[in-house]
Amino acid sequence: MKKVLLPICLALLTWTGSGSVLEAQAQSGPHKVVVAKKKATNKANTNEVRQFYKNFLKSYILGGKDVHSNPKFRAYLSEELIQKLHERFVSEYDDEDGMGLAVWLFRGGGQDPDDAEMLRTLSVQPAKDNWYVVKMTSRGKRDTLRVRIVKKNKRFLITDVENPDW
Questions:
Q1: CATH number of 52-162: 3.90.1150.10, 3.40.50.300, 3.30.1020.10, 3.10.450.50?
Q2: How many CB atoms lie within 10 A of CB 109?
Q3: Distance from C-alpha of 87 to C-alpha of 136, rounded to nearest angstrom
């Protein structure tokens, strides 16, 4: 038993942090230990999600564009989220065309936000179960919301949003 554990322990002590896979070779034996490095994958995925969300904000949310009926905008959202955003819109405004969505839930900043500052200070950090904590600053006010983003058919899809300020 000691002969098996010693090479494994030595291998664990001699790991190097290069590449996407950690490999260690025990100096006193032919045993090889390979462990997947999950954090690198998670960081890459978080960067992809951050870029996806930044593009979403820049293209559709910030700047006061009327995006309610835009099919490209709606392609970013799950059907369930579209329904939730519509119900929230109807609870606050008259919806003459039946297309209104509560897009303000995706941003902070209150009245007259500084869009450029929000994009510049955007932070997207992973939470649990495909939820991401989104932080951004506008006119000195730091806002935090949660967005659920999943990868479906090789593309990202926003499935939920929680904004405590709204």
A1: 3.10.450.50
A2: 19
A3: 25
Delimit the domains of the chain by residue range. Answer: 2-36, 52-162
Cα 89 → chain centroid: 24
What percent of the chain clears pLDDT 70, i.e. is strictly above it? 72
Query: For the sheet containing 141-152, what is the strand order?
Result: 123-126, 131-138, 141-152, 155-162
Q: Single out the residue of 5, 161, 6 nearest to residue 85, CA to CA.
A: 161
- 38-49 pLDDT tens trace: 455 577 789 999
pLDDT in tens, 86-101: 999 999 888 777 778 8
148 exposed, middle or buried (CB, 10 Å; 0-12, 13-18, 19+)?
middle
The span from the first CA to the last CA of the chain, in angstroms, equals 61
Partner residues linked to 132 by β-bridges: 126, 147
